[in-house]
Design brief:
Strand order of the largest sheet: 1-2-3
CATH class: Alpha Beta
CATH architecture: 4-Layer Sandwich
Distance between the termini: 16 Å
Low-confidence stretches: none
CATH superfamily: Metallo-dependent phosphatases
CATH topology: Purple Acid Phosphatase, chain A, domain 2
Largest sheet: 3 strands, parallel
Strand content: 15-25%
Number of strands: 10
Number of helices: 7
Mean pLDDT: 95
Shape: globular
Radius of gyration: 15 Å
Order of helices and strands: EHHEHEHEEEEHHEEEH
Structural class: alpha/beta
Length: 169
């Protein structure tokens, strides 16, 4: 399967329109959070609606700029994998939204324990081989190319790194 992976749109619907060729070629879309523009929660729903209009197969979590209650919106659209283990065409999806506290200025900052607890269904499941697992996590694992912010700081989650190493999705 071929997935289009998107994150951090921050209310920019036009950015999604520029991806129309990629939407057309994708078997599914993975959205790793930050529907909304910083401090403008009203910009989230139009992004979600645009995503659902562009592809029928959509799996999402919310980001640190999204209000925590925005999870209900993606659940209503039946595309949330946050705290859920979802099976689709032989693949398993699970997700965790929000981000660890960095500057304490976004609405969905969480502890590492909370972020990893969203993924607990994987560790509790009887399945031993997770080679079919796709994890959609807004907060990246620690000390990777994905967790570096301007200034060179690593803001990822050490506990997420440890879980990924243990499960080996």
């Amino acid at each position: 399967m071929k997935f289009l992976v998107i994150s951090d749109i921050h209310g920019n619907e036009e950015a999604l329109d520029k991806l129309d060729p990629q939407f057309a070629q994708a078997d599914g879309v993975l959205f790793a959070g930050d529907f909304t523009r910083f401090k403008h929660p009203e910009t989230g729903l139009p992004v979600l609606e645009k995503l659902t209009s562009k592809h029928d197969t959509l799996f999402c979590v919310i980001g640190n700029c999204d209000e925590p209650d925005f999870i209900s919106r993606i659940e209503e659209k039946d595309c949330s994998v946050q705290k859920a283990l979802v099976f689709h065409e032989g693949l398993a999806f699970i997700g965790s939204g929000g981000a660890t506290v960095f500057q304490n200025d976004t609405p969905n900052e969480r502890t590492e324990e909370d972020i990893v607890s969203d993924l607990a269904l994987v560790t509790q499941a009887q399945q031993q081989d997770w080679s079919n697992l796709i994890m959609i996590i807004h907060n990246p694992p620690k000390d990777t190319k994905c967790d570096t912010v301007p200034g060179g700081f690593h803001v990822g989650s050490q506990m997420t790194t440890e879980l990924i190493k243990k499960i080996q999705p």
